Amino acid sequence: MKIVHLIGYFQPEFGYKEYYIARNQAKKGHEVHVITSNKVMPLHEYGGLAKRLGLPASRDRGKEQLGETVLDGIIVHRLPGIFEIKDFILLKGVKKLLEVIKPDIVHAYAPNQGSTIFGPLYKDHFKYFLIGDDQILPETLKPYKSFLGMVRYQLFQRFFNWFYYKKCDVIFCPNQATKDYLDKYYHCKEKTKLVPLGYESDFFYFDKTGREEVRKKFQFTDKDFLIVLIGRITEDKGFDFVIKACADLMREGSLKILLVGEGDFKEDLKNLVNSLELAGKVFFEDFISEKSLYKYFSAGDLGVWAKRPSVGISNAIACKLPVLVPDNQFVDHLVAFGNGITFEKGSKKDFQEKLKTIVKRKDIYSKLKYNTERAQKYFDYSNLALADLESYKENLKS
């Protein structure tokens, strides 16, 4: 099968679904192509992130990366951009490549990235099966946040979206909230399909040696119950909420927190820890590369995401780590196998009650731990990568 993944920015150094899906399809013997730009997405604080990863500070990958390369069995085609504004980029030469490749399936991601529009634009001409993929987050349920954003949306983005959704044969949604949003505003209920974000089992798995290494580094004992908070440290993640809500339980017992990552809110959190007199209870680790994070997930006893959903939840599942997450349609499916517990979003009281249950009831915790193995099979990208082919075959039958 010939499969093309079409996306404005392809960044295997950061992980992301499009890389893992393509990688696993290639491993299964399919001819897999990625058509993308030669730039890194304009990420917040990219300069600092690039430095920590040992990458060039410039978003431009350079002329040497233009054209065709092969990565993990994926044929990557990096094309020059002809227009870019924020994270919207149009590429030069997509039609010519599609004509050469002659794909059976085109998987076009993120209509807000612009070049996705070439997927629906050339669909009828080249007669391929078109998969749409929109990973809408809570903060993007409203299509714009400012006057300029409204102008941009009203002038062209909404027309792009309508055309994109209309031409897709199927649209993958990572959660029920996204699915409901697209059903309501774009009237495409018959096309939407729930395909969650998963994990790459080559990079994320439970590792006993890694667990011991990390716990030894911070001098955690076997009696310590460790909460790990992993991700970019920004104010909207709710890390401060977790520290405050856990304060009393940390003071009275062996509960501890390890926060892994960098961000502009890190110093505020350190000041908060000092003000609450939690030295020796809350620990900070610097930025850790994606391919070493499995050790930190393995070291924890519980992963907590208090506000925003994150791909880290799926990675925690891969490392047999139970999770505590808000009760909403963005993450409910991630604990559907009994591998985690939800709490009422924003409720300190409910969070504390659920946390005490997990920490103090060994029977309940053991069950959560056991159920992570059930969840692992479902969220493994080696299985989720088959959704493209399954949808293609279902379409042929119908």
Structure report:
- By secondary structure, the chain is of the alpha/beta class.
- It folds into two domains: 214 residues, Rossmann fold; 172 residues, Glycogen Phosphorylase B (Rossmann fold).
- It is 40% helix and 19% strand.
- The strands form three sheets. It has an eight-stranded mixed beta sheet, with helices on both faces.
- Strand 12, helix 10 and strand 13 form a beta-alpha-beta unit.
- Helix 8 packs across helix 11 and helix 9 packs across helix 13.
- The mean pLDDT is 90.
Name some characteristics of this structure.
single chain; about 400 residues; alpha/beta; Rossmann fold; eight-stranded mixed β-sheet; 16 helices
